[in-house]
Amino acid sequence: MKKIPRQLRALSREALADFVAANARTLSEEEALDVLANPFVTPQILQTIAQSHRLTGFYSVRLRLVAHRATPQAHAVKLVHYLHWPDMVRLSVDVRVPSPVRRALETQLLLRIDKLSLGEKISSARRCSPALIRALLFDPDPKVFAALLVNQRLREDDLILLAGSDRASAEKLRLLAADRKWSYRYAIRKALAMNPATPRAVAASQLRFLGARDLYQIHRNPDTTVYVRRCIERLRPAVLTRIDGIHG
Prior knowledge:
mainly alpha
């Protein structure tokens, strides 16, 4: 009968190596987790645990191996396939996880995204990585986009891409225009004003913040609605006349 140290997590480097060497084949789930939590655990010990089909049969052990920075990457990447969605989302944005493992996590997330429920998409959108943000950006449900707007990894370029796209719905454009963080960015205001799918009152409300040349560009754009053109004409008639004269 093996002798189990009282505190596996506190063993010295040498004692930990000796314990694993002597007991690797009979480690319990709890013992394996304690070994993985020891600050002196080595890649060799992690590999020993990762190569045990019995130990990696425990979800908690698989999860800890993928999350551990010292786990040999070949083993960590292989185990990524057997994690649950919420854990993959969490680990994909954890900078302590090596970048190759995070890329493997993102690949799996992108492959599974079409199978998610609406609730799972909304939950993921609030905290997912840039790669998943781009995949969720054009999800048809506006609730997913509303969740993306609170994601700290969302970038202005992502929103400009959406706001300038013919795939953007009127509801998403309305949400963007009402957002306290992003709606004041000049490039976003311009994109909202230029997109014919933007509700006309929302598009018109952006015009007074735009420069003369951008107003002229919007006015001359054949996709601009008649309503927005008339708003520009009322707002800056002298500018349009002056720029028309320059181009003429």
